[in-house]
Write a structure and sequence with these properties.
Elements: E1 6-11, H1 17-31, E2 35-42, H2 55-65, E3 74-82, H3 83-93, E4 98-103, H4 114-122, E5 126-131, E6 140-144, H5 149-164, E7 170-177, H6 190-208, E8 218-225, H7 229-239, E9 244-248, H8 254-258, H9 262-270, E10 275-278, H10 285-296
Parallel strand pairs: 1-2, 1-4, 2-3, 4-5, 6-7, 6-9, 7-8, 9-10
Antiparallel strand pairs: 5-10
Helix pairs in contact: 3-10, 7-9
């Protein structure tokens, strides 16, 4: 059961704030959440220099950006705390299903893009990271799949969002594989090794999604041979004019959860379009509780 009952949007007076609000409004139309928490957090990208905004001014700004029909479901919170830790704390305590946050474009991130990777790694729910300038559409989605349970979960979330977008839904699955350097010792040519690897990948993906309902969606699977997963994903998303990239987080054990994955990190840090990181809700609670406890410890 896919739920978007509790949606959070985080503002930090940096490029991407307006886009985050626009996408939050779009997600709200799709998921019809019971509550939307708009939280202002200072100091995520740049050091805190200005006082927190006036709550009334923030209320007006948010009301102007979100759909009017959302009405009283919008709750505005002006946080006096700063940085990533406050975002994690409020996501945990608010039991959010998805958070939306804006960011600079990769060329303008000045080394702070890693903050969004840390957010996606530690938060206990889905994260939609929206770059400045992104147009609020979520009907054409590229899903990265490797045959894992988490990538299947990402596909199911993408199908739900695309169908509910109100536009012509399209979901494009990309499975990226590579050929190891040792293929020559098997007596195969590079072409033969590539065909063999693609056949194995096709079998894995087809088995993974065999019972997934793709009806009502323009659905396609693309198999790509590449040593650079992130670049291959960005290239296909740009070439096919996709609205966002969807990728599942990985790991069910505490050490694995702590490492969201090198692939997800590269896709998220350098994507010129929105990236939705899909997580099994609550999977990182133990890890996040340990992080927050350590941050609150004296000394």
């Amino acid at each position: 059961m896919i739920s978007l009952a509790r949606l959070g949007v985080y503002l930090n007076d940096e490029p991407g704030d307006q886009e985050a609000l626009a996408f939050a409004g779009l997600v709200a139309r799709i998921g019809r959440p019971a509550s939307i928490h708009c939280i202002h957090v200072r100091g995520l990208e740049d050091p805190v220099a200005l006082p927190p905004p006036d709550p009334q001014a923030l209320q007006q700004r948010v009301a102007a950006a979100l759909p009017a029909e959302l009405g009283g479901r919008v709750e505005i919170h002006v946080s006096e705390a700063t940085g990533l830790q406050e975002m994690l704390r409020t996501a945990r305590h608010g039991d959010l299903d998805m958070i939306v946050v804006g960011r600079r474009l990769p060329h303008d991130q000045l080394g702070v893009g890693a903050a969004f990777y840390r957010l996606a790694r530690k938060t206990p729910c889905d994260v939609l990271v929206v770059p400045a300038g992104a147009v609020p559409h979520l009907s054409r989605l590229l899903v990265l799949m490797d045959g894992s349970a988490h990538s299947r979960m990402a596909l199911e979330k993408a199908l739900f969002v695309a169908r509910a977008s109100g536009e012509r839904p399209q979901v494009l699955v990309q499975s990226i594989y590579s050929v190891g350097y040792g293929y020559q010792y098997t007596g195969m040519s590079l072409e033969e090794a590539t065909r063999q690897r693609e056949a194995l990948t096709r079998k894995q993906i087809e088995e993974c999604i065999a019972d997934v309902d793709t009806s009502g969606v323009d659905f396609e699977i693309v198999y790509t041979c590449s040593l650079d997963t992130a670049a291959a994903a960005h290239d296909l998303a740009s070439a096919r004019n996709m609205d966002a990239i969807v990728i599942g987080s990985r790991g069910a054990t505490l050490p694995a959860i702590a490492l969201l994955g090198a692939t997800t990190e590269r896709v998220l840090l350098n994507a010129p379009m929105p990236v939705l990181v899909v997580k099994r809700k609550g999977e990182t609670f133990r890890f996040l509780d340990a992080v927050l406890e350590g941050l609150q410890a004296p000394g």
